[in-house]
Design goal:
transmembrane helix, 78% helix, single chain
Length: 143
């Protein structure tokens, strides 16, 4: 009987820890998306002609904000993390792809690459936590 109580307490602790980690990841994703969305205005780049990179930051930032908000309201899921992973990968690749595609981008942009790396790392951590939470709890061995 005591072993079942210990297992139940361990399961409750895992759920609470996973919920706290999901909230922290969601808030960090939300901050990253907001930084992408508001970055062109803060840097004063929106006064210039609309450039592909600015539009890219706005669109990806908006997507990340909505997905992170969904993650915070309904909990993390594989779809949310995959969308964030794709957005992060795109933000890493976009300065190079848009810069080589005869657009008005002035080369690789460190801010976009940095936020892309942050989003990618957060998504990988979220996917790892999701995988770990779905794994069955290890059984106690008796001597």
């Amino acid at each position: 009987m005591a072993r079942k109580d210990v297992e139940a307490a361990d399961a409750r602790r895992r759920v609470v820890r996973k919920g706290q980690h999901d909230d922290v990841l969601g808030v960090l994703m939300l901050i990253s998306g907001a930084a992408l969305f508001f970055g062109p205005w803060v840097a004063g780049q929106m006064a210039d002609a609309a450039r592909d990179a600015n539009i890219n930051e706005l669109v990806v930032g908006l997507i990340v904000v909505f997905v992170a908000g969904s993650r915070l309201s309904s909990g993390g899921g594989i779809r949310n993390d995959l969308v964030i992973l794709l957005a992060g990968g795109w933000m890493i690749a976009a300065p190079f792809l848009l810069g080589l595609g005869n657009t008005r981008v002035a080369g690789p942009r460190p801010f976009d690459i940095f936020v892309g790396v942050v989003l990618t790392v957060l998504a990988v951590v979220g996917l790892g936590l999701l995988r770990a939470s779905r794994r069955p709890a290890p059984r106690a061995r008796h001597a």
